[in-house]
């Protein structure tokens, strides 16, 4: 049975990205990961001047889907929240919806040659991080833990790619 | 944490965001609502919108002091209310940010404010030191003969009021030297006002230094005291003095000579009595030769000179500092780390430390998080990985342009960090975009 769905939304990266995410997520949360065909138009959440999409709006749309279980939207669009200039991802704490943007994870954005490995590492970390929030995890003080707060790509690079033992235990407890 | 904003979408997004940081978050949609909630319980952090219908944020801030004096208050402003926000700082707000806010920055701001408050509380509780009663500032930790010499000069200079020029590479601790001088001087009961001339665009430099009168330029809605005035009776520390433009140099020179100036847009002259300490990592003589620095200003600030040696020349200090930072960060993070392995110490001592003490400090801060107690091992010392050819660095020619050495330095750091741009930017203490631009400018490439 599939218990975590990946939902591509205006995703311009090669389709491997979704498989990388699935491969990264499955062992951490002991879930089966499936692909949800995209049916959401982003227009309703797009801010005309900021040329960004409201992450909160996306979450509300995901919650409105006929109960598919846990769902992680993945998009190439730049995300924002009304009070913030941008966000890399957003999730319902202890809820069943999350979204991750690859927009700020590309090396090209910073004038460097493309680097797929780095994009992959960053995207997987952020996907695990947001799904961690869905499992009720809050930000972890350990700089090595993937649940360490990361609002910039520097933070994403500097933290580890796994849950620390404590966060892993919390996930296990929740799974029961 | 309490979020006060009349806009639902702002309240909601902040509430979600900070719940993920593990805060208990309450929200209020108006001033009276906020005050009511504060009567019930005090809050550690209050994010307060300035512009709200009815009772505005400033009014809430004034009353909040009685209800919840320990709260860290951060004002949220829209464009156009920045002058008000500056007012808010004067009546006790900790800082302000303009919406929309950089999420990264807001997180850091709050963490820093809470840390500061915690250490203030600790200081308040702890029995004061027998002498002086000043909080222990971040001290210079050193045993090497080179630094002993620096310490000796600090002691001999502190009492007199002479102008001091501190020279040294970035990260060597020039500001610590300035603070040490200030702390040992008769001016220590007054503030040391530190100002980084390189961090401010030239257009704002004068108003930062001299202050401005109401209406002096668009956006100046109230009078503001500049750094020179704030330093009255204390010490003015001007870092990166070599970056000041020629026009401001003229003004600054006049002030240093007369200790008098007028605020921008002002009529009357203001007197301020301060001691000047400058610092630079640039070759000022070369700037003078190239006519980028006025010779008279150069002579005015270069009355007494202290050279802070780079870390790699400070025999024995690497070990001392590494253990010092280990202790500091282990205590702060409550991790039971007692020492470094002999291998780790050896590796640290082999390294050339292009980023100096600051780099070592950052590395130890990270190592404390990564290490498995009780010992920090070589693998925990991130950035040390590829030990660089120390000899090559030490014998690098002293001549060469600033650009050449910058290029070489950036390349060295990039190699050490295995081209992890984020890490390299951290070591270099510049942001990633600046680093990318420099990589492009110098045509740097991995391998
Ligand atoms: Zn998070
Ligand atoms: Zn953790």
In percent, how much strand structure appears in the residues of chain A?
A: 15-25%
CATH topology of chain A: Collagenase (Catalytic Domain)
- Which ligands are bound? zinc ion
CATH class of chain A: Alpha Beta
Strand order of the largest sheet of chain A: 2-1-5-9-8
Overall average residue pLDDT of chain A: 91
Biggest contact? A-B, 33 and 37 residues
The CATH H-level homologous superfamily of the largest domain in chain B: P-loop containing nucleotide triphosphate hydrolases
Give the strand tally of chain B: 16
Structure description:
The complex is a heterodimer of chains A (176) and B (447). Chain A is α/β, with parallel strands linked by helices and 176 residues long. Chain A has helices at 16-29, 55-63, 116-134, 153-158, 165-175; strands at 4-9, 33-35, 46-47, 52-54, 70-75, 79-81, 84-87, 89-91, 97-101. Chain A has a single domain (4-175), classed as Collagenase (Catalytic Domain). Chain A has five helices and nine strands. A five-stranded mixed β-sheet of chain A has the order 2-1-5-9-8, sandwiched between helices. A four-stranded mixed β-sheet of chain A has the order 3-4-6-7. Chain A is globular. By secondary structure, chain B is α/β, with parallel strands linked by helices. Chain B folds into three domains: 2-124, Response regulator (Rossmann fold); 133-307, 3-Layer(aba) Sandwich (Rossmann fold); 313-442, Helicase, Ruva Protein, domain 3, CATH 1.10.8. Helices cover 46% and strands 13% of the residues of chain B. Chain B contains 19 helices and 16 strands. A five-stranded parallel β-sheet of chain B has the order 2-1-3-4-5, sandwiched between helices. Chain B has a five-stranded parallel β-sheet with strand order 7-10-13-6-14. A two-stranded antiparallel sheet of chain B has the order 8-9. In chain B, strand 3, helix 3 (57-67) and strand 4 (72-77) form a beta-alpha-beta unit. Chain B is globular, with a radius of gyration of 24 Å. The N and C termini of chain B lie far apart (49 Å). Residues 125-137 and 386-399 of chain B have low confidence and may be disordered. Chain A binds chain B through residues 56, 80-87, 90-93, 107, 110-112, 133, 138-139, 141-144, 149, 151-158, and chain B through 7, 9-10, 12-14, 16-17, 19-22, 76, 99-104, 106-107, 333, 366, 369-370, 420-423, 425-426, 432-433, 436-437, 439-440.
